[in-house]
Amino acid sequence: MKIEDCRLLIISGPTATGKTNLAIKLAKLYNGELISADSRQLYQGLDIGTGKDHPKDTNIHLIDIITPDKSFSVAQYQKFAFQKIDEIHQENKLPIIVGGTGQYIDAIVNPDKATYSIKPNPFLRFFLNKFPVSTLQKIYCLLDKKSFLSLNKLSMDQTINNSFLVDKNFNIILQGDPIVNMTIQQEYVSTISVFKEKKQQ
Fold first, then answer.
1. How many Cα atoms within 13 Å fall on the side-chain side of residue 54?
2. Beta strands of the chain (E only): which ranges?
3. Domain region containing 158
4. Of 7, 8, 14, 117, which one has the greatest count of Cβ atoms within 10 A?
């Protein structure tokens, strides 16, 4: 499946900003199903600590799929997410990615990174774990200075907006109940970044 050929809506933002409630409203409005992009909500039995939602009348996928004693990589998430996106499209529905785990969202909108196909190397991880971050940064800079200097220069929203996949981006300040009037373009990925208005001190 080529992500650039898909209709897809992404709702991202910080914790406890109403992303899921907004996604449910849009799913009902646009005949959609939700796919979680939360690295903690995929674990079973962590409902309270992760703020996990279980909407009664809207499907949400990729929650409660593994037990807490199991590991789960970004590459695994990407595989599961693409599978669900394809299944939802086959039902002529709109896939709505909702969550705040940036790596998961990045794995969907930028799926061709070579690192997703690299198998874990336990020995290398054990060896590198012995060094402080500052030493690892120096090693990385020596090996690939250009990539090192590019780290943390763009926010997630800027990275997505610079992608050819995105047709529109909406920044929403929630004031009470999240009700949004907008038209979602059908050809490309649209993104919604959700924030809550800070209360005056």
1. 7
2. 8-12, 32-36, 60-61, 94-98, 166-174, 189-196
3. 3-119+154-162+174-196
4. 8
